[in-house]
């Protein structure tokens, strides 16, 4: 095996999934799966029927396309983002849109394009664990930046950058990665003010770094807003963003996770490099999926579907919130989520929630599964890895399982907390 | 940009495609696109309708799956290969099947799993140019092994391995990559005898190498046989293959290139490593596509479709063959193709066919495009890169364009040859 091959660890989540499958009575609040009952079977059937009915629209959907993605979908994506950003169009031209196999593939290829072994990427503390797994496999170091409910702690970010400058490591820093909407795992959303400040801070350190410091904005959960707050514009709308922001978006989570289509909006020269890498990976994302999404967007059936799932997640989140209030010990801190798929619970510091902990084992025995917080933290030697937290998902569980799952978890926690 | 990013070259084929698009009257015999008229719009529509009609079958198709791929498709794939291999089942268990985004993605991830920078992979001379592009981007060296109409030149292969052993480079050799059926670009098919000999040769040098020497068998064109010869069994059926053969197959070319589903059959520990890498790339190939193919296989509509396209390619290939005989100069050597999408033409050695050559420019002026042979040769410093050949595809061109395209190309060649 190559060094990369040896470093690529078994994904934590696969163990969780296997565990879930082996215990049929187990309620999983672990997986980031989306809601099953609201998957758009009817809409997809209708749209695919329309596409495949005539050779004129059917054949292009079943043929190879270009690596950047289908032009109509790229245009509709630019327009869609413009609309989400309140008509702002500073950085939403279709030429900068790259269609990918989910936003995950975009993240992978972006790291291939930007980072060599030994480079450093700054991440939120905690962050999306599969991103950490990519970093590890590619021998890229992660540094965790403290996370507050409205985004990273700016003072901490500046402190880290300053330290790295002093230690001579700033030249190894290539990017800051933030999950800016209903973050995985905490549910936190980064405010526009913070995005702006982050962009300015990165800019400030660029001269010392000797190269661009990119801001990777992962907006995977953006459209899963269910509170009544307003959508926060992307970092793409900020001055100077056109050259520095890499936006990772997806249609998988809002539309259907079985239709894996994501997209990136990337500055040059990252766009060109990632496009070439995409050519080597797979030439381009399956056209059939791209045509399905393009038609869903064009007919507004996409918007209608998103409205439905938002209501549904709002109901399930509210249900979970009530259950948490009822069953969890009072000294467990719960982060508010205005969207996404997760609640984040912080236990008193002395209680471990890790896979080998008493809490996790007791939960498993009670047939309920959560994601231990520790796997969401980077291997960052500058701090101890917190292990007193848990990610709890209302994404795929139905209402009964949410109620019963939280109740079981509450019983477990009350024994330890 | 990273070193990988800087090394990843613009794909030659993208330039060819752009050129094709900019000249509306141009007849492209370059692209490896499949036949447009026989794309399975009707079958796909019917099957997707069935899948999405009931929530029971529709929802799983629109939800996340597991990284290895949908179990039914993995089972059907193992059975399908068993059938192709005449009932042989030595190495076709579903547990070893990994579903990927086309076989291209499998090749990419396999190289990630096996090779470090500076490693060596042996390839056919000439070979599939996108594979060469991956090698280059990952800083893996390629060594070309002479190709004969029934597979690699075994004497040359042994000579190269011996040389590499003497020079101390054998420890950097990780694999031999062969496109074993209707090879891209030459149309050559590797005989079972040669596969066996290749496997034994690799085995022989393993002790000196100090690690396994894998045989990557790319069978992308396998099902596009149109002569009346019998299918050659895979290397997987040979003794010892279970531990050393990495089989890359695909449903994209025989079914629909817009439904990008490929698969690998891999030995441990490569299987586990590639599976983990797949988790980092995209968690798994889009379920909707996997369910579509599983149903196509289960209902035998897949087989019926393959029978149709085989007849169609047979007709188009015959047409091209007749046109070649009629219009090409007699001293141009044409390789026989019993399947696949390509003819391979070898001009007298002194005539260059490269992108900057007079022949290529004249062809472009005559509005006909081919793939210059030179891009199918590895950067191998041990020999001069041949540049007197051309790959001519009958895949996507219709009958009229095949006739007219070869006629135009013949006129051009007669000026130079």
Low-confidence parts of chain A lasting 5 or more residues at pLDDT below 50? none
**Euclidean distance between termini CA atoms of chain A:** 45 Å
In the residues of chain A, how many domains can be counted?
Answer: 2
Instruction: Name the CATH class of the largest domain in chain A.
Output: Alpha Beta
Looking at the overall shape, the CATH architecture of the largest domain in chain A is 3-Layer(aba) Sandwich
Trace the largest sheet of chain A across and list its strands. 2-9-8-7-6-3-4-5
Give a summary of the structure in a few sentences.
The structure is a homodimer of 417-residue chains. The first copy, chain A, is an alpha/beta fold.
Describe this structure in words.
In chain A, helix 3 (about 40-55) packs across helix 4 (about 55-60) and helix 5 packs across helix 12 (about 285-300). The first copy, chain A, has an eight-stranded mixed β-sheet with strand order 2-9-8-7-6-3-4-5, with helices on both faces. A four-stranded antiparallel β-sheet of chain A has the order 10-11-14-13, with no helix packed on it. In chain A, strands 1-12 form a two-stranded parallel ribbon. Chain A is α/β, with parallel strands linked by helices. Chain A has two domains: about 5-40 and about 310-415, Aspartate Aminotransferase, domain 1 (Alpha-Beta Complex), CATH 3.90.1150.10; about 45-300, Type I PLP-dependent aspartate aminotransferase-like (Major domain) (Aspartate Aminotransferase, domain 2). Chain A has 15 helices and 14 strands. Chain A has helices at about 5, 10-20, 40-55, 55-60, 70-85, 100-115, 130-135, 155-165, 190-210, 240-245, 270-280, 285-300, 300-325, 360-365, 400-415, and strands spanning about 25-30, 95-100, 120-125, 140-150, 150, 175-180, 215-220, 245-250, 260-265, 335, 340-345, 370, 370, 390-395. Chains A and B meet through helix 1, helix 3, helix 4, helix 6 and helix 7 of A and helix 1, helix 3, helix 4, helix 6 and helix 7 of B.
């Amino acid at each position: 095996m190559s060094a990369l091959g040896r470093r690529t660890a078994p994904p934590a989540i696969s163990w969780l999934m296997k565990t879930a499958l082996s215990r049929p009575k187990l309620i999983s609040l672990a997986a980031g799966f989306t809601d099953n009952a609201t998957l758009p079977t009817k809409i997809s059937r209708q749209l695919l029927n329309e596409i495949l009915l005539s050779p004129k629209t059917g054949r292009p959907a079943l043929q190879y396309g270009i690596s950047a993605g289908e032009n109509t979908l790229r245009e509709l994506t630019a327009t869609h983002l413009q609309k989400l950003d309140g008509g702002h169009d500073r950085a939403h031209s279709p030429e900068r849109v790259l269609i990918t196999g989910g936003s995950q593939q975009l993240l992978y290829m972006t790291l291939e394009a930007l980072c060599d072994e030994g480079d450093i990427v700054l991440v939120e503390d905690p962050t999306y664990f599969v991103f950490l797994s990519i970093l590890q496999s590619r021998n890229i170091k992660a540094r965790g930046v403290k996370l507050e409910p409205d985004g990273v702690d700016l003072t901490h970010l500046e402190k880290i950058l300053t330290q790295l400058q002093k230690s001579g490591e700033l030249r190894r820093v290539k990017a800051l990665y933030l999950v800016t909407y209903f973050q995985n795992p905490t549910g936190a959303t980064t405010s526009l003010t913070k995005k702006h400040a982050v962009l300015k801070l990165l800019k400030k350190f660029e001269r010392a770094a000797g190269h661009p410091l990119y801001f990777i904005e992962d907006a995977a959960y953006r459209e899963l807003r269910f509170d009544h707050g307003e959508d926060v514009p992307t970092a793409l709308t900020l001055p100077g963003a056109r050259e520095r922001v890499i936006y990772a978006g997806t249609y998988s989570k809002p539309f259907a996770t079985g239709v894996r289509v994501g997209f990136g909006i990337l500055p040059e020269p990252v766009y060109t490099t990632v496009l070439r890498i995409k050519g080597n990976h797979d030439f381009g994302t399956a056209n059939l999926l791209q045509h399905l999404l393009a038609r869903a967007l064009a007919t507004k059936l996409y918007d209608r579907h998103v409205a439905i799932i938002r209501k549904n997640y709002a109901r399930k989140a509210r249900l979970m919130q009530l259950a948490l209030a009822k069953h969890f010990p009072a000294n467990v801190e719960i982060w508010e989520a205005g969207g996404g798929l997760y609640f984040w619970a912080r236990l008193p510091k002395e209680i471990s929630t890790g896979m080998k902990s008493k809490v996790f084992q007791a939960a498993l025995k009670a047939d309920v599964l959560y994601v231990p917080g520790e796997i969401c933290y980077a291997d960052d030697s500058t701090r101890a890895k917190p292990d007193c937290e848990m990610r709890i998902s209302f994404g795929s569980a139905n209402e009964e399982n949410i109620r019963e799952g939280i109740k079981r978890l509450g019983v477990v926690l009350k024994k330890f907390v």
